[in-house]
Amino acid sequence: MASSDLEDLCFHINTKISTIKKTLQLRNIGQEPSLKSMLCKIGHEMVLLHDLLNKMETEVQQQEKLKNLLKELHKSAERDQNEAQHLRENIPPHLPKPTQNCITGLTAKCEEQTKVAELERAKKPTKESRLIKEAPLITAEEFESVPAYMKGRLTYNQINAVVQDMNKAVMGKYKILHQPLKSMNAAVRNLYHRFLEEETKDTKGEFFIVEADIKEFTQLKVDKRFHRILNILRHCQRVREVRGSRLVRYVIC
To answer: For residue 237, is it left (φ>0), alpha (ψ between -120 and 50) or beta?
Structure first.
């Protein structure tokens, strides 16, 4: 065996021995209680570092897409600029002017369209112009002025969502009341007669709904939370109650 081969063999064996020693040392370090917490911390930091690298990679990809979009936008803007420059440099010295017949025809057409629109407005029945009263939304200042025991965990948006649903029920009810009776089907006619039966002398000229209307025209649940919000709406003078004939009528203020 040549001396160089022997030296290589010795170097290889010494490298293996050194690797085994380092492995044994690392195993012994992992078993020491004083170093276990440090190793766990290093492992946790490695996980966080891995997550951060993933986020950075995602951000780089998004920026790459944005860069490509900006390149396309830049090319499009350059094309538009070149076309505009070409048009500017090639404007004809003499443009044709509109003739008197053309101007007269356009004027007559506009006048005719105006007359037709006025006739259509005049032909519309007056019932369509009837206004249906709605409750205004609660303002931020009004919400802050509501006592804490009334609000509880209710939010500003939850209260106004109920106001919107109540307005939706009011609109649904009074659109039916404003319809001609001949245009109603059987189901709508039954609702119409129920609306009339629920009216009293105290609600004459007022806009009001009952719980049945809320269930008919909205998906709002008439539960404890609904009645808590009603207390707030009464406090803010959005609705008032009229009771009678075992029925509670919510009148829009």
So the answer is: left
Q: Report the DSSP beta bridge partners of residue 250.
A: 209, 241
CA 62 to chain centre: 24
Whether 127 has a pLDDT exceeding 50, the answer reads no
Question: CA–CA separation, 251 vs 191, rounded Å?
Answer: 18
Q: Which residue has the higher pLDDT, 125 or 92?
A: 92
DSSP string, 75-128: HHHHHHHHHHHHHHHT--SSPPPPPHHHHHHHHHHHHHHHHHHHHHHHHS-GGG
- Among candidate residues 26, 45, 46, the one with its CA nearest the CA of residue 35: 26
Asked if 184 contacts 192 with a C-beta cutoff of 8 angstroms, the reply is: yes
Residue spans of beta strands (DSSP E) within the chain: 208-209, 239-244, 247-252
Q: Rounded to an integer, what distance in angstroms lies between the CA atom of residue 120 and that of residue 111? A: 14
> Which residue reads 């009334």 in tokens?
150
Encode pLDDT of 108-124 as tens digits: 666 677 666 666 665 55
3-state secondary structure of 241: strand
Phi and psi torsions of 136, nearest 5°: -65, 150
